[in-house]
Amino acid sequence: MKVLGIETSCDETGVAVYDTDSGLRAHALYSQIALHAEYGGVVPELASRDHVRKLLPLVRETLREAGMTTSDLDGVAYTAGPGLVGALLVGAGVARSMAWALDVPAIGVHHMEGHLLAPLLEDDPERGRPEPPFVALLVSGGHTQLVHVEAIGRYRLLGETLDDAAGEAFDKTAKLMGLPYPGGPQLAALAEQGRPGVFRFARPMTDRPGLDFSFSGLKTQVLLAWKESDRSDAVRADIARGFEDAVVETLSIKCERALEAAGCDTLVVAGGVGANKRLRARLDEMTRKRGGRVSFPRPQFCTDNGAMIAYAGALRLAAGQHGDLAVRVTPRWDM
Ligand code: KG4
Ligand code: ZN
Hints:
Layout: E1 2-7, E2 12-19, E3 23-31, H1 33-37, H2 44-66, E4 75-81, H3 85-102, E5 106-110, H4 111-117, E6 134-139, E7 144-151, E8 154-160, H5 166-176, H6 183-193, H7 216-228, H8 233-262, E9 266-270, H9 277-289, E10 293-295, H10 299-302, H11 306-318
Parallel strand pairs: 1-4, 4-5, 6-9, 9-10
Antiparallel strand pairs: 1-2, 2-3, 6-7, 7-8
Helix pairs in contact: 2-3, 4-11, 5-6, 5-7, 5-8, 6-8, 7-8, 8-9
The structure holds 5'-O-[(R)-(carboxyoxy)(hydroxy)phosphoryl]adenosine (KG4) and zinc ion.
């Protein structure tokens, strides 16, 4: 079964084709980061308009790369939510229209389910594809959640952030130290040059039982440290390192607790913050010590992309799950 996947929930236009027999056939991504940079964040109306401009050319490019035409498709999957309503409607409109014209099913996919299943997109050459049950850590700009994946489609929320998401904390912290949008990856790059232990920030909510997170207090701690410092490049790097270490250790402590609570050995990490090198190394070390494993999508599939939507759509289609022809999106939507 060959499924076209379309992602337009925020500021990336992503398109891919997944084949349940031969795997990922092609994928293409257009990032709007440069468009929004001068505003310091995503401007929803500009995002919608840019998806309109880029989506059809990307669909053509992806099909060409896959060596396919639209008549080869068995279904069209798209992100139905959560996300920016205008941006979602562009993907939903194109996907549903294509599905109607081709007389194939359209499948509305939950964006976070897409992220959650992204680590299963590809075989790990060393350890094979992770199989449920496992614990998933979803860490993006909008979410920080621990989910017990009992089976594909059976998800139990174990814990989540009570305020800022981990990616949001990275972005806001970067901004307050004067780094340009989107600051998360730049803050992480800066932390590479910083010295560990010069600044030590709290590991929020690790001193009590539970699997929830809270990251908003960390950025206030950073703000105080930054204001009291000489604001040199060296200090900025040391603060970045202290902040990154606090987030990484907090996530690792909670992941270990979640594995214990769920009785699982396997951890799967998804979402943009999953691209963070130190987080990857730390979770690898933690799971190995427990005799288990951790799986990450390749960094390019940690952030928003069409491949995860095509894959989640293909699984749903194979399970006989798809909706009617109404163009409907759900900007706020629990998984
Ligand atoms: O999953 P994603 O592409 O979009 C959402 O659905 O939110 O995640 C984007 C988030 C941003 O907050 C970004 O700063 C963060 O992921 N991010 C990183 C890194 N790369 C992306 N955070 C820390 N270290 C990184 N290397
Ligand atoms: Zn995302």
